[in-house]
Every structure is written in C-alpha cells, then in structure tokens.
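Hey all, sorry for the wall of text incoming. These are the three entities for the joint prediction.
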Amino acid sequence: MNALADILFGGLFQGSLYAMMAVGLALVWTTIGVFNFSHGVLMMLGAYFAWQLVDWGLAPALAFPIAVLLMAGVGWLLQATVVRPLIGRANLVLVVVITTLAAGSLIENGVLELWGPRSKQIPPLVAGNAMLGGVGVSLHQIAIIVVTPIILLALWLFLNRTRLGLALRAVAQNEDAACLVGLNVTMLYGLAFAIAASLAALAGIFLGGYRFMTPVMGADPLLKALIVVVFGGISSISGPIFAAYLIGFFEAICSYYFGLYWTPALLFAALILTLMIKPEGIFASRSRGLA
Amino acid sequence: MSVIETSAPTVSAPPRAPGRTPWMTELAGALVGLLVLALLPLVVGDAYGRHVLIMVFIYAVVASNWDLSLGYGGVFNFGHLALFGIGVYAYSLLTKLAMFDPWVALVASGVIAVVAAVVVTIPILRLKGIYIILVTFGFAQLVMQVILSQSDYTGGTQGIVRIPGLYWFDHNMVRDAKFAYFYIALAMLALSTLFLRVFVRSRTGKSVVALRDNEEYAVSRGVSLVRQRMITLAASAFFTGIAGAFYAAYQRNASVEVFGMSLATIVLSMVLLGGTGTIYGAIIASFVLTVFAESMADFGAWRPMITAVLIIVVMLVYPGGIVGMLKALWGLATRRRA
Amino acid sequence: MTNMLSVTGLTAGYGRVTVLHGIGIEAGKHGNVGLFGPNGHGKTTLLRAVSGLLKPKAGSIVFDGADITGESARSIVARGLVHVPQGNTLFPDLTIADCMSLGAFSPHARPHEAANKERVAALFPKLAERWRQRVRTLSGGERQMVSIGVALMSHPKLLILDEPTLGLAPKIKDELCKAVLDISKAGVPLIVVEQDVEFLLELTNHLYFINHGQVETEIKPGDSLAHSDIMAMYFGQ
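and here's what came out:
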C-alpha cells in the first residue's frame, strides 16, 4: 500500500511539474511553429524574479503573480527581437533554435552577473507537510498537483473555446490567410510567447519552492520539456499534457524499483523507441506538417 | 517570369553556374590558404598564441563537418558534438585502458564515431525536421548519461587525466611551444577539408543536396533517402571523432563538459556565422569567433553574453553568414566592374 | 456608379525584382472587373499589393474614397476590401465552422456574423453538410468554397478572387460560378483573376489584359471586342 501511495503521489507530482514545463513549449510550437530553446532559461528567470520580489519584502501571494506578469512581458520582448523578424525565412525552425539558444545564453549569463552563482530558494506555494496514505508529502507538492490541472484546463478552454484562441491556432497554419481575415498577427505572436513565458515562470516558481535555484537550473527542465513534447505529439497541447503525466508515472515507477540512477537512461531509450515506432508521438493523431 | 534586365552574354567561355567555382580554382585558393596557415608559427612564436590557433583548427574541423550534415545534408544533427565527445573518450579509453598506440587510437576513434553516427541514424531514418533535432538532442544526452554512469571507466564527473599524447618520432612534444601539435592539427584540418570538399563535389554529395532541396523529387528519381542520410551523417562523423581524439591527446585530459550545451552553442554558431552549406564558412567563422572570444577572455560573464548578441545580430541581419556576406561583397565588386 | 477601387501608377515587386511597372486599374464604375493574362506577369502581385500583403514601392491605391496605399492587411480588411488568395491551403487543421468564425473576426464583420453564416450555408450546401469537418479532409473544390465562404464572413464591400477555379473539375467550376454570381447579384462588386476566360466573361464585363506587369489592353463594356479577339489576346501573345 505504501508503494502504491508513493508511486501515485510521485507520479502525480512529477507529472504536474512536467506538464507545466512542457505546455509552454508546446503552445509556441502549435501556434507559431517554432521551438523556443530558451524555455528552460525563462523558467529560471521567473523563479529569480519571484525571489527578488520576495527579497524586497513583497508577500509571496503578491510576488508570484507579479513575477508571472513580468515574464509575460519578457516573452513578448523575446519574440519581438529574435523570432518575429525571422518569420518568412526558409529554415525558420532551425534559425529560431539558434537565436533562442543564444538569447537563453544571454539571459542565463545576465542572471549570473546580477544575482551570482550561489543557490537561492523561494518560499513554497504553501508551507508545511502532511501525511497522505502513509507517505510524507509537502503541502507545496499538493498545491502543485491541485493547481496545475486547473491552469491547464483554463489554457485548453482559452485555445479551443474562445475566438482569440482560435486566432492563435490559425496563425501558425497559414499566416497570409490569417492576415487576409483581419487577424493582428504581430499581436498574436506576442500573445503566444507571453503566455508561454508566463507558464514557464510558473514552472520555475514551482521548482524554486522545493529545490535550490541556480542560474543554470533551466537546462534540465528544458530537456524534460522537450522529451514530453516529443512523446506527447507535437500537433496539439493535450498530447504533451497526457504524456507529461505518463512520463511522471513512468519515472515514479522506475525510481521506486530501479532507483534514480537508471531512470534517465531508461526514459531516453523509451523515447527513442517511441519515435521509431510512432514518429508523431504517442498521443498524436496526425503529424503536424510543420516539421 | 522575372523582369530583370539581362545584358547580352559576351562570347567566350561556357556559362558557369552562378556561385560554382571550378575545382581547380578552389584547390588553388585552398592551397594558398594552407600555405599561409603553415607559415603562421613563424609569426606566432609563443605557446599561447599557437594554442589558440590549435583550438581554432579543432573547432574548424568539428564545425565544418557539422556543416556537411546540417548545411549540405539538411539534417540538423543536434548530437554532432556527442560524436566529438565520443572521439574524446574513445581515444582516452583506448590509450589508457587498452594500451593502444596513440596514432592507432586516433584513427580508431574516428571509426568509432562513424559507428555511433550510423547507430543514431537508425531511429531518425525517416523522420522529418524537428523530430531529428529532438532525437539527436536526446541521443547526445544519452551518451553523456552513459559516460557519467560508467564512472569506473570514465571517471564520471571527474573525467580522465594523464591521457597519453601523440608523438612524432623522437621529437619532444612537450617543450617545443606546441610546434608539433600545431602542424598535426593543421594537417588534420587540411585532410578533413579535403575530404569534405571531395565528398560535396562527388555524385554522392550532389545527391545529398538534391535530397535536401527537394526530397520528394529526389526520392522519385531513385535517390535512397535512408542510405544517403546515413552516408552523410557517417561522413560527418569521421573527422569529428578524430578531432575529439586529438583534443584528448592535446589536452591530456577528458571531461563530460564536451557534451554540454555551451560548447554545442559555440560550434553551432561557427557553422551558422560562417554560412551553412559552404564548409569554408565554418572554418573562417571558427577563426573569427575563437579569436574574438580570446580577446574577451577577461570579460567574465560578459563574454558569452556578447557572443550571444553577436550570434543573434548575425542571424537577423546576415542569414548567409560570413560567406554570404563575402559573396555579396564580391558580387557588388564584380558587378561594378562589368 | 463611382469607382470602388482606383489603382494608379503602382510599382511593386519582391526584393530587387520589380513585377509591376506603374500599373493602373479601376474597379466599380463598369461592374465587375476581370483580370487575365499570362502567368507570372503580375496579376497576383497586384492583388497582394491591393490587399496589403505587399508594400508597393510607388503609386497609390484608393478604396471607397480613402487612400489605403501601404496600409496593413488587417486594416484593409476592416474597411471591407476582402481578398481570397490563390490556392486554398487555408487552415488545414481548423474545421469549417472554425474558419467561418475566424472570417468574422474583424470588428466590422462581427455584428453580421450570424446572418453571413446563413448566407454561406445557403450558397454552399455541401459545406453545410460538413460543418464540423477539418479543412485538410476536404476536396479541392470544397476548400475553394470554404475560402470564398470565409471571405463572405468578412462582410466585404469589394471581393477579390484570385484564380478561384484553378485545378478544379468543370462540374465544380460551374457550381462555383453559380455561387459567385449569386454573391455578385446580392450586391458585392467583384474583381476576379482567372485563367478560364469563359468563367471570367460570365462574371465580369470590364476586363484588363495584364502583360509584363502592365495593363496592355482595357476592355470596357460596350467595346466591340469579339470573344475570339480576347482569346487571341490571351493565347496569341
């Protein structure tokens, strides 16, 4: 019973984290059609903004939302400088990988300069611990497990049930046609990146609440997010979300039985195997065609 | 379709495809360049200066080989640096544990890198664009994980030290201010470039480009996607692996840092800055970027920041990279004369 | 009837290539306008310049009394100048219903959304049957209908159709022709670019023959130009 509770909880927690990390990446891909390789860095930056605001005396309940909003602005700025000007280029995806990689490096080193390499921590969403089915968990983890699905649902509703979300989905599929229908493409690109950056910031705040933050903390989450998005199919948002939880549980099971040591290798092997069998990802119905 | 005014062609030589230099001209130009480089140690006498040049040569090999799969093949192998890393560790393990002769180990490392490239081609055989990026990225991380986990052999995060260096008859490799290593590195670069250019100009090379430019058409004309992809990646791996081995022999130690994103970013920038699909562009860019980075060695964290800004600016303004820029300037110069 | 659209001295192109050399056309005074001519000589470029996808290098475009030269596509659509582009890739993963909602995105089109939806369903019963189907699963003819339907949702004051029958079977062409005629009769002026001169003559009676980025011949209604002369113009050049 203990094992089950442990795995269940661990899976839900990791799954929620991965979902939060991956959904911003998936959003940019499904709307604008590019891969943002600074996504991990954005998570880190969100955490650092939150830390600085708390350090200045702001209550976390205020600091966290402000940090998220600030990051929305950063996301907008990012796409305005290193993505939007490149739209129309032949190998857009490739070039954007480079420019976002470079932008990420720029931000990472900037953070290193401003805040130094020593690790920091931000307050958890909810402080304290509890016992759940015989397993000791932190309230922070429970908060993450509860909050994540709510946010993801809100995002899904926005994209699929609102006119603005529809506009976002249209823009990646055919920019010219989008213009001719009267859509403000510039604004939509900015919006997509702003939302993605906000989600990244949230992921960063989640991470910073229970792990030590350093300027290079974004590298691993980026990798995990990439795995989730590839696994889940890069043709939609829902695919990666399901994949995130699946991978979360996979990791929880692996860690329990094989230990943390082998889990990454097993994960990669599973990833490569999946791609060989079903290149569009486990949950994709069709390849996007943007690849 | 176009309404560009074209001047009547003058009588004489058969029309040349724009941008296609005949191979003799290219060979002549390359030999001149090689000669200039070979004479550099006479000008650059200190060990540090030569060290910088040796690093340039190493980066140039890795970058130009990446240009083969990326620029010519159109396959974004994000795991290219992993091939370099495999070369590093292959050489280290072969010489330290298996007691191989360093020169044999050098070549063997190249071969091992080729095998690894073939292995990585298998999952991406029929994948497109972004999937290739992600899988090769994953492959690179996987290799790093494996090396880290086998710390008994590989030293894990500590790496490997006291790796046997290369030798040249009785020459003292240590106290010659890097004279011998300089020429070995230069020879490596020359051979690699020769190999790449011959490959590119060969029928295989041309079919690879055909695949890149119009996959469906090329396949319908009988070009085997799978085979060509594998050949391209394998070809790009050989000298990359050798460069890794040379790096290990030169530095006398190995660490997993070679698998990190920062090195990948730097080398990738060289490929892009130079202009993809040119081979020489990557080599020139290696010079420019390495010298640039060295001149900023005291700037601390500002160095990668300035490099990053440079990359972004170049990608925004000069998508053709340095070579593109040079071609444009050359075009301007020759047009004015005409 | 005054001119809805007036293009004067328009020069435009792509990069260093100039495609249009001071071209000028007028639409509205003599009914629907048709543009024809050899491929690659500027018809699509002209339309892209008019609808704001391409910034002209020189010249002026006046629509419904306002100078729209250099304006963004978005604001031009908001004025009621709607362009149905060539080819019908549209939005492959969206449903027909989605596309129609999208068409009414512009603020001036939104109040008429419900009414326009009914019009489109009535005009194209085939689409009404497939309302929840994704565009990529439709046939070429159906996708073209969606393109035109989307344009109608944008509540056009002037509708521009670029090669609406390209690649379509004759039966579908007839259906489309009928539908477009209905649209025209409902009071929407048209500018149509077409290879199929028959189609063009059915819908329009003010024609421009465009060659080398310029108007080579203008045929106003009442000009005694035989059908065979027009065909000769088109093929003979």
